[in-house]
Design a protein that fits this description.
Elements (H helix, E strand, L loop, with lengths): L8 H22 L6 H14 L3 E5 L2 H11 L7 E4 L6 H8 L3 E4 L22 E5 L10 H11 L2 E5 L7 E2 L2 E2 L6 E5 L13 E5 L2 H10 L21 H11 L2 H18 L5 E2 L7 E2 L5 E5 L2 H10 L28 H9 E4 L7 H12 L3
Length: 365
């Protein structure tokens, strides 16, 4: 058996190489590399795909969140409620705009923010809620949206891992004021570098975002805001246009692989991912739960099976947030950070590899 990888970007590239290579050469020959026709085309196609009025590209999923917070005037003295079980960027951008991240514990089954705990955290300082659709599955976004409307606070969805995921047949990212996506290469819809996208139904907010990503203005030397250099380049846009054509097939392959894993893995001390009824889960990760994780990782290493651990430290315990002097000890978060482990998951994963990984996991005692 060939060496198993946690993910493999080369195989996907091979299938689209001819179109990608031609487009890249055309762009290089054109001399138009920033905010050209490919970016415009991608934004239009992306908005249509998810069912949003406007899509504004930027240079990363992190910036998508940052620009959205700025567009909602979140800043010093404000609070934003989010999850402590996510990539650091989610909370990082809140701090970068001068606000304070406030953390709610997670659902131990879906690993997403527990929507039932949000309301009691809302204060006069709360300016937004930023839930994450983790590992490819929607959080309880309809309930969170109701809360945000009730208290007249912004809803910014972190969809970095959930492009293509749905809640009751509606795409994640289209419930709130903004939906923020990452195109990091390992995402379900990934480019060949960094990239991001924001969707919104507000023309005013779309214009603000377009200015913020371009040094605060749409016209050269006219600056309405202190902005950023956060523009998606033409090459990345062209790659994403190519992948967007086949993204539904890519996600269906992920789902098929997840179903096969779930069918084959049968070990009482291993928990496979939980999928909530009404959710269309696109499995950016296939994340197991196991007690005594260190022992399990040693076992996988012995059998040459790669793995990933997302996320071993709750965000409120990160050194970068020492100044906030957080006193959190969120029970589910503390437990899940010690038990979660992700095994290989990408669309090109073959049946023999899936069967081998499952067989090894089943033999673990």
């Amino acid at each position: 058996m060939k060496k198993i990888k946690i993910f493999d970007l080369k195989d996907q590239y091979k299938k689209i190489a001819k179109e990608v290579n031609k487009n890249v050469i055309d762009i290089l020959s054109s001399g138009q590399y920033i905010l050209g026709k490919n970016v415009k085309d991608l934004e239009e196609k992306f908005a249509k795909h998810v069912g949003s009025k406007y899509a504004i590209s930027c240079n990363s999923g992190t910036d998508a969140l940052l620009l959205s917070l700025r567009a909602m005037n979140v800043g010093k003295g404000d609070e934003v409620i989010t999850t402590p079980f996510t990539y650091f960027a989610t909370a990082e951008v809140i701090a970068l705009v001068g606000a304070k991240p406030i953390f709610a514990d997670i659902n131990p089954h879906t690993f997403n923010i527990n929507h039932k705990l949000i309301e009691k955290l809302i204060t006069k300082k709360t300016k937004a809620v930023m839930p994450v659709h983790l590992f490819g599955q929607s959080c309880e976004i309809t309930e969170i949206r109701k809360l945000c409307k009730k208290y007249k606070i912004a809803l910014i969805e972190d969809c970095a891992q959930s492009f293509g995921a749905k809640k009751e047949n509606k795409y994640t990212g289209t419930f709130g004021d903004f939906g923020c996506y990452s195109f990091f290469p390992t995402k379900n819809l990934g480019c060949a570098g960094d990239g991001g996208m924001i969707v919104t139904n507000s023309i005013q907010k779309a214009r603000t975002l377009q200015k913020l990503r371009n040094h605060g203005g749409l016209i050269r030397n006219i600056h309405d805001y202190i902005g950023y250099n956060s523009r998606l380049d033409e090459i990345q846009a062209s790659i994403l246009i190519t992948k967007l054509k086949i993204i539904d097939q890519i996600n269906k392959k992920r789902i098929k692989i997840a179903q096969k894993y779930k069918k084959l893995i049968n070990n009482k001390i291993i928990c496979v991912p939980y999928q909530k009824i009404g959710n269309y889960h696109v499995y950016n990760q296939f994340t197991l739960r196991v007690k005594r994780r260190k022992r399990f990782t040693s076992y996988l290493e012995k059998h040459s099976i790669p793995y990933g651990i997302y996320y071993p430290t709750p965000i409120y315990k990160q050194k970068a947030f020492d100044e906030y002097n957080y006193k959190y000890n969120l029970m589910n978060t503390e437990k899940i950070t010690k038990e979660c482990i992700s095994i290989p998951m990408y669309p090109e994963l073959d049946n023999n590899t899936i069967e081998y990984i499952s067989e090894i996991i089943n033999k673990y005692k």
